[in-house]
Amino acid sequence: MKSALVCGAGGFIGWHLVKRLKEEGYWVRGVDWKMPEFSPTKADHFIKTDLRSPLACEVALSSQEVPEIDTTPPNGKFDEVYQLAADMGGMGFIHKEECDIMRNSALININMIHAASQAKVKRYFFSSSACVYRNQVSGEEELAEEDAYPALPDNEYGWEKLYAERMAMTYGRNKGMEVRIARFQNCYGAQGTWIGGREKAPAALCRKVAEADIGKKDNIEIWGDGNAVRAFIYVDDLVDGILTLMRSDVKEPVNIGRREYVTVNQLAKIIIDIAEIEVGIEHIDGPVGVAARYFKDDKLKSLGWESKISLEEGLRMTYKWIYGLVKKNDKRYN
């Protein structure tokens, strides 16, 4: 039986990754500074701690037994570490909390990669982001992984991710650890944050349309003119990509995303059509981010990975989940 430590297991992607690893027969420990928000974790053992602390990272990797509780990896150490923990959120949060993003995420990444090397972890996965790339304009050619340099990320979240990539690769070269790095495109699906300021566009728009659906709003708001171009990947496809990359021999950063490009206006229209309602769109001032994101996925496809879930199919599942939560939280339905 293989064992894995999932850092950020209290978050959206981490919850799904833990679930998939358990389905594949892994012994899994989850660690985060919060428990999963919507459904219980599937992990064999969960530690609630702050990975900004070097000691917390060491404890997360420890095989020390707790009496009467199965908290120890079967072989006494972890075969794999998945580092997804980060201080992050949607565009509003990224633009507002730059200092916390840079400090908190950098501390987590510095301390966890070092602790993993000290613990002789065999394989280490780091979740990077498409935010490492420069701004693009509508209709521009797709960027390959090598096009992250010369470096010019649009925001501080991207700069921190780029530094963390370099640090992970440096440890991999010097400490005998197999490091794998994925640059995520926007991910969405059930179990993701949908309210509170950290939610990303698909979840935010699903919530706004659901609120209109139950009669709480007459229209939905979109920051900017809605013409920014994005690609979105459903969480199950993303987890497939993570595991495909982790089990490969590819040492360089790899893009993971579904190359189905839409504007934010088009994204909203798909969700409105799914809800089968008539609702207006109001464009308001707010942080938009880059004008466009286009990327190549040749490296991951060469490993046999393919995105299986279309944007409409994924949004249909996500909307159903968020609609249920919106209705549940509306006092008129309680």
Question: What do these coordinates show?
Answer:
The N and C termini lie far apart (45 Å). The protein is 38% helix and 17% strand. Helix 4 (98-118) packs parallel to helix 5, helix 6 (201-213) packs parallel to helix 8 (264-275) and helix 8 (264-275) crosses helix 10. The chain folds into 2 domains: 3-188 and 233-256, Rossmann fold (3-Layer(aba) Sandwich), CATH 3.40.50.720; 201-231 and 259-333, UDP-galactose 4-epimerase, domain 1, CATH 3.90.25.10. With 334 residues, it is an alpha/beta fold. The protein has 10 helices and 12 strands. It has a 7-stranded parallel sheet, sandwiched between helices. A 3-stranded mixed sheet has the order 7-9-11. The model has no long low-confidence stretch (mean pLDDT 92).
The fraction of residues assigned to DSSP E strands is: 15-25%
The dominant shape is: globular
Give me the strand/helix succession.
EHEEHEHHEHEEHEEHEEHEHH
* Helix vs. strand class: alpha/beta
Summed up, the helix count is 10
Mean pLDDT: 92
- CATH topology group of the largest domain: Rossmann fold
CATH superfamily of the largest domain: NAD(P)-binding Rossmann-like Domain
Radius of gyration: 20 Å
Query: Percent of residues in helical segments?
Result: 25-40%
Cα-to-Cα separation, first versus last residue: 45 Å
CATH class category name of the largest domain: Alpha Beta
Instruction: Please give the CATH architecture of the largest domain.
Output: 3-Layer(aba) Sandwich
